[in-house]
Structures are given as C-alpha cells and as structure tokens.
Amino acid sequence: RQSYYQNAFPIAERLGYANEGLLRVRQKVRGQYDPSVFAFFSWPNAEAAQKYRANPRFAEFKQLRREAWHEMNIYDAEIREDLRLTFDPAKHYTALIAWLDEDTRADYTRYLEGIEPAVTRAGGRFIYKEFDPYMQALDGSGDAPGQITFVEWASEDGFEKVQQSPEYAAHQRYFASSVERFEFYWLKAPG
C-alpha cells in the first residue's frame, strides 16, 4: 500500500485531489463485498479526475491497488454544488448502495422522499445522495449502482424506528419496485 500512496497520491494531489474523511464499516447487513471503510475524496472538477485517469502511469497505479488490496470499489460522481461532509464519532451512519430498475427508478426517489419525515423523527438525516456514479472495481467487474445514500443517525436504533413508522409502511413498496439489488452497511466515524 505504501508504494501506491507514494506514487499515485502526489500526482492526484497536484491535480487537486483531496481526502475528505472516512467511515469504518461496523456491520455489513447485506452485500456481496466486505469493505472495511468508506473513504470520501474530492476533485476540484471532472476534468481533473479525468486527467488523473488519463495519466500514462494510471495503469501502474491500478496494478498497485490490486497488489495492496483484495477488494476495492471506487464510486465517483460529479456534484454541482460544494459539499462539506463532517463525521461525528458520537453518531451512527448507514450506506445503502442501490442498483435501480431503469423503468421504475423514480419509485426509489418516491420511497426516500416518503420516509424522510420518519427518518427525521428517528434522529436521522440524509447527508449525501450520489446519483449514477462512475464505478471502478479493483477486479474490473461489476456494474455501477444507480444511487448511494448516506444517512447520519443519532442512535443505533434509528433505522429500526423508521421501519416501524407509517411512512415506511406506506412507501416500502416503492423500494421493492425500483431496486434490483442493494447493499446495506452500518458505519462509524473513527474517534
């Protein structure tokens, strides 16, 4: 890993790459992967990210990743407004990675909007929704999800409270109709 950090990061940082923080995986509820962390990064713009991927040494960097990790998925999406994420070690976080049915993907938005009042009552808040990310899988396989949703919770039982709510009961069918598959992880900020 040290070789990757020493070779790839200086080039990325010269192009404006910044590490924005990380969340450790506390529990995998459902998923085919076993990540240990969700790391957040930023580029100043899409051109900088593309310039990094076009670097003649990028193939070397990808090989160094394969040697350093047995598993890694990088999800990358352009956002239009600046976003500053901060993670509180006293809070709890969830990540839901959803592969959406193209014909019914609007139902997923309906589901999230429908349960939002229950999420708020349960001490949660949506902190970031990543739409249609570009995906780089370490092994070169896999298809990109339609959306990744991060929620911050005041307590560990926040999502359980949402599942008991009338909003969840009324909108769960939209989740079922729009999601082809999903992964769900409980996360924790280092501290």
Describe the structure.
It is a single chain. The chain is α+β, with helices and mostly antiparallel strands and 191 residues long. The chain has helices spanning 2-14, 46-53, 58-68, 105-121, 158-163, 166-178, and strands at 18-30, 37-42, 73-76, 92-100, 124-131, 134-137, 147-153, 179-188. The protein has a 6-stranded antiparallel β-sheet with strand order 2-1-8-4-7-5. The protein has a two-stranded antiparallel sheet with strand order 3-6. Strand 1 and strand 2 (37-42) form a beta hairpin. The radius of gyration is 18 Å and the shape is globular. The mean pLDDT is 94.
Give me the side-by-side strand order of the main sheet: 2-1-8-4-7-5
Mean pLDDT across every amino acid position: 94
Q: Gap between N and C termini, in Å?
A: 23 Å
Helix content: 25-40%
Question: How many separate helices?
Answer: 6
**Count of beta strands:** 8
Give the low-pLDDT segments: none
Q: Biggest sheet, in brief?
A: 6 strands, antiparallel
Q: How many whole angstroms does the radius of gyration measure?
A: 18 Å
**Helix/sheet category:** alpha+beta
Task: Determine the strand fraction and express it as a percent band.
Answer: 25-35%
User: H/E order of the elements?
Assistant: HEEHHEEHEEEHHE
**Shape annotation:** globular
